[in-house]
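Every protein is a chain of amino acids, and every chain bends into a shape of its own. The protein below has been through that process, and both of its lines are reproduced in full.
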Amino acid sequence: MNHLVIMAGGVGSRFWPMSTAELPKQFIDVLGVGRTLFQLTYDRFEGICSPENVWVVTNERYAKLVHEQLPEIPENNILKEPCRRNTAPCIAYVSWRIKATDPKANIVVAPSDHLVTDPVEFRRVVAQCLKFTGESDAIVTLGMKPTRPETGYGYIEADLSAPCARNKEIFRVVKFREKPALDVAIKYIQQRNFLWNSGIFIWSASTIINAFRVYEPSIARIFDKIRDKLGTPEEQAVINEVYPDCENISVDYAIMEKADEIYVCPASFGWSDLGTWGSLLIQSKKDLYGNAVISSKVDVYDTKNSIINVQSAKKVVVQGLDGYIVAEHDGVLLICKLSEEQRIKQFSNEN
């Protein structure tokens, strides 16, 4: 059976003031389309698996939000992390939990705050990758064909010389690369075998659990020890006790950069990780002057290349700005140059 795992525990601090620790960006309608990023993530997997096989891993403080926004999925499928421990423990927990009820499970793992503009092509790619992992011990990640020399994403170096025998669209991974400087990103684009790392993974439950046992045994031991408690009324109490002992490590470092059978499927379906206001501006519908105005309460004059998102203000007039973020939420107003948006974390901590 196919299972979907949505990772929804992040706080989205780079989207402050709209995104806060109480209400992170994945649970907000940042695009102004009537659905939150979290709901849109669920929507794009329609037909891939049934609602009872959808799992959400989130911080315990967001469990109620998850249930309110996706009442279709069973409450027991909302796994609550007692503390933040990065993606490796999150994926280990849900993988052991799924395998306890479906030993032959085939799993796709996706972040909750990404954007996909071509969901039909997205579903086609995911379905064929699930078929591939269902017939092998492979770990597959989706690599996005880059459209610009982006310094905000990690990259996957792929061996495009020989596709897999079972699927001509899937190739071996040569190496995962960190977020590059601009000159390096330009070289990556020119070489054509470098792809953006989407953070979307596909594997069978058995394959990923075996990988944890080989490459990250300290985490595997924790979940092997408690596996008979998973799916029982004792699960949450046991997780609350052992989860803080897990190493704070990403699945990229823990598994992807170490394992042998790692493959990538180069794809193009209008993907963005929407990590910053700048990335939201790129993906949003813009006026003739390059402005994205995500509100009906805003009048704009002599302004260009800016993103304006106001949630609760009665009326906003913006004049004479070029390359700015204007964001208001719950009585907090941010006016910041787009070129300085890396400082937003600093601003939010100081207020």
